Amino acid sequence: MNTETMFGWRTALKIIFLLLMSCVILGPLSITVFGGFKTLGELRVSPIGLPHEWVFSNYGDILGSAEFWGYLKNSLVISISCVLLTLIVSGMAAYCFAQLHFFGKKMLFAYFTVGMMFPFATAILPLFIKIRDLGLLDTPVGVIFPQVAFGLAFSMMLFRGFFEQLPKELFEAAQIDGIGYMGFFFRFTLPLSVPILSTVATFVFVQSWNNFLLPLVVLNEQPAYTWTLGMMQYRGAYMTDWSRVLAFVTLTMVPAVVFFFAAQKYIVAGLTGGAVKG
Question: How far apart are CA 204 and CA 133, in angstroms?
Fold first, then answer.
């Protein structure tokens, strides 16, 4: 085999690009992880590199506090609820757009996807007023519903592309056996759609888990805080305990990373099967 074919300049450029991207990602990540093991003084003098003296109390104090686990419970409730609601609503809506034929289908689907053009931050003020009028401030529901609504367009686009790839003969055979649209959706479409379900669930979970702006606006009582808001307890009027903030950030990343790796093998299949025709 030709050596140029095995390791040409195109491959070398790809390797260099991937190494640079790895450094861009792993650099700030390592500073955050190791910064949690440093004292505040060392962090100010030497923010990059390994700690001279490992301080485990930053992580230990956070893990030993009841507030930390309360924030974890709130984040789990909100994120899991967002995942379940998004999968149910967007999955059923996308199934209609993929399998049913009705007047204005393309126009209606385009109307839904237009929502992806509006940044979440631009709607934060009218969203706050509506949540306040509905009496949902300081409740998980006030965070869950807006997150689900803003994630529907992207989820429907992925779902519809995947559902359109399912063989039509399968539905025709199910119709001969007397199975309707709903029965076909629950008995055939969903079991065959594990890759796209995992992909959408991962995107929604990570997005909800890392959301800071909406919980900041909606949740004002500390017991209702999510993990992303919990780090504010280490920020004072005149001083911020950056070591514990970095330790807190490191711990909050763990569940999202675990969830991502658990669904990793389905994500590529879900994206390639669902996003091509979106």
Answer: 26
Closest by CA to 91, choosing from 10, 160, 31, is 160
pLDDT in tens, 64-86: 888 888 888 999 999 999 999 99
| Sign of the alpha-carbon torsion through 212, 216, 222, 224 | negative
**Does 160 or 263 have the greater pLDDT score?**
160
Nearest to 64 by CA among 251, 235, 224: 251
Query: Which tens digits make up the pLDDT trace of 118-147?
Result: 777 778 888 889 888 988 888 999 999 999
Mean pLDDT of 219-232: 84
Q: Are 163 and 189 in contact (CB under 8 A)?
A: yes
Confidence of residue 278 (pLDDT cuts 50, 70, 90): very low
* Start-end of H helices in 164-241: 168-176, 181-184, 194-210, 213-218, 227-230
Q: What is the pLDDT of residue 115?
A: 75
Find tokens 């807006």 and name the residue: 146
Tell me what pLDDT residue 98 has.
85
Query: Are 161 and 269 spatial neighbours (Cβ–Cβ below 8 Å)?
Result: no
Secondary structure, 3-state, 157-170: HHHHHHHCCCCHHH
Burial profile 109-123: b = 16 or more Cβ within 10 angstroms, e = fewer: beebbeeeeeeeeee
C-alpha separations of 12 from 3, 5, 19, 42, 243 in Å: 13, 11, 10, 39, 39
CB distance 75 to 248 below 8 Å? no
| CA distances, 143 to each of 45, 68, 173 (Å) | 39, 19, 42
